[in-house]
Amino acid sequence: MIFEEIHIKNLFSYREAVFDLTGASSDRNIALISGRNGYGKTSLINCIKLLFVGANEDMRASVLSNRALSRKQYILGAANDEWLGIMNRRARQAGEKDCEIRITWRDGSNDSLIDARRLWRLDTTGFEEELRVSLDSGTSVLHDDAAREYLEGLLPEDYLPFFFFDGEQIQRLAEANRDRLLAQIERLLNISPIDTLRENLKKLANEWRKDAMVEEKRSRLTELEGEQNTLSARINALAEKRADTLSKIDRLEHEIQEEEHRLDSHRVASQDHDKKALTGKRDHLAKELEETQDRIADSLPSTVPLLANPRLVKSAVAELRKLVENDATQQASALQDVLSDLQTDLFDKPPHSSPRLTESQIRFYKHRLESLLRAHIPRPEDMSEGLLRMELSRARALLSVLDHFAQADRERRTQAQTLQRITWLKRDFAEVALSLDDVSHLPEEEHEEFFRRKAANDERKRRIGALEQEIKHSEESRTEINKQLREKDKAIRDQEKQVRLSAAARAKVERAEQMHGFFRAYKDTLKRHKREAIERAINTHFQALVTGHALIQHIHTSMWRRISVSTSKTARVGPWPWPACRRG
Hints:
Rossmann fold; 3 domains; 6-stranded antiparallel β-sheet; 3-stranded antiparallel β-sheet; about 10% strand; extended; DNA sulfur modification protein DndD
């Protein structure tokens, strides 16, 4: 399939364009598209994709972050100008209703001319789409479903990204979901049907297992699975809500940015001579305010109750000193130390008695000794006339901590000065922001418009804050539901263990599980053979294409996940992920 002509009308950035590719030949069959940003490279690739697969899921998901458009939204445009649709903007403004992509190419098998055309007729409420493929230089014409089936057979949808590749999407591919990328590669190599077979075997084994259950156990398992499905549905609903909320935040941030540009234009018109100085001062104040707040946030939260209440801390220190310095407290501490050390020194350290005491005798004497000594140790509530009652060790530890804060007048003054500095910075920042917003020199109508737009932007910022709180609550709910799901999974597994299977049912389940393991091993073996074949092909073509590159002797692949190279010095470099290698 060698393209001869591409004709685009009213699609994306193209009003009317014809690309003549008739100069291609068997030794010149690669088309390289280059140009500055915004000159239509991506639009051309998307037009070609539209011809072959229409507005498929991948194309609809690539427009907005975190949300896929519906087919109607992709063609006509989304609400609030998030996406304007496929129709060229100038053509839309001119009142035109039709847009189309048409490609002519040569069939490689018989050199016949193929002409494929997809067109859309748009109105305010919907659209009509037509696909037509002319074969054998127009002697046979396929329409819609027949045409789609022909194009799918010629270039399957899964293969499309590998034939029409947008270089600007390399970084996005490098950061793409790895599981999805591997799944696409397995589909291309015809390995994925094994996963489908294994999944069906697993479902079949579960059905056989359930059929052989005692009725009571089966009912409980069905109930647990229903609860699990309900939780999963709640997780999916939360994910959809989160995606919608993120989309709203993206839209609001875009609107805020656009509105700020308009507000800046009003500010410039009012005070162009002061804007640079005021902006610089505002940025300096914002930076100092952020640094000061970060610095005090690291130390103040843990100590602020003690620094902010010096009288209370000093009173606590005085009471602790009464407890620590009390004679009865000292006596109790000494007796406690004697009790702790005497038992070890008397019974556990050599020299030992002859004959040696048995373990039961040692336990008896230790208990007797402890009872005798503890009778002479005062209780904590009897050791002090103060307000506090606690063990001496705890009192000493607490005293060592509070004594520092009782004498921390210098630190207290420093933190107070820092807080005062933050207050002053916020006040100065607000004054500079107010000066930047001073549009008193503007005409009254523009003055009112400025503050109306500013109020609208402030409301958008407030809504973003509320939406971010919604996302936070949603994440908390999702965490809790995931916890419940894990508990439900465990309950289901426990319930399955209680199932009594008949001999025939057990044999069927075991056979299904054996086949499941066999196909897993078969898939691993098939992947290894495919990897070896890919590695051989890479090295064969690499040596032919890059004849001047003498450093790389061999390229190694690892189950199409990572790639490394052997250099001429027999060193092995890598591995790197596949998408990273595409960038190189």
